[in-house]
Design goal:
Helices cover about 35% and strands about 20% of the residues. With about 120 residues, it is α+β, with helices and mostly antiparallel strands. Keywords: Membrane, Transmembrane, Transmembrane helix.
Length: about 120
């Protein structure tokens, strides 16, 4: 006993829930809708920014390593030639795309250039 009767739980014998089942379902739905409305735009924005960064990094790498390329494209691949992450492909003049280099899980231009064949004269 705490000595404070106002803090004691009143037991009037009624053990029904405070809210009806219908009201609890509506509340759950509204909470899930609110969480989705907060999280989904963040996920979509992150994916959009990452895709744009990968495309820009791939365009820069293609302009450095394949000057004869007609274009470039980047895509996320779990089992790509460079391991899991963003992969850069260059597009030739006839529209065929070929693997150029990996951009990593967080797309960035590689620091070390890949080995280039040297022209022996």
């Amino acid at each position: 006993m705490t000595g404070h009767p106002e803090l004691e739980l009143a037991d009037d014998g009624d053990h029904r829930p405070l809210r009806s089942e219908r009201m609890r379902r509506i509340t759950r739905f509204v909470v899930l809708l609110g969480l989705t409305a907060l999280i989904l735009p963040t996920i979509l924005t992150t994916l959009s920014v990452t895709q744009a960064s990968a495309n820009r990094a791939c365009a820069v790498a293609t302009s450095v390593y394949r000057q004869d390329a007609a274009g470039s494209t980047a895509g996320f691949e779990l089992f790509g030639p460079g391991g899991p992450g963003w992969q850069c492909y260059w597009i030739s003049g006839n529209g065929v795309s070929s693997y150029l280099l990996p951009l990593g899980l967080v797309p960035s231009v590689p620091r070390e250039p890949p080995a280039r064949p040297t022209a022996e004269a």
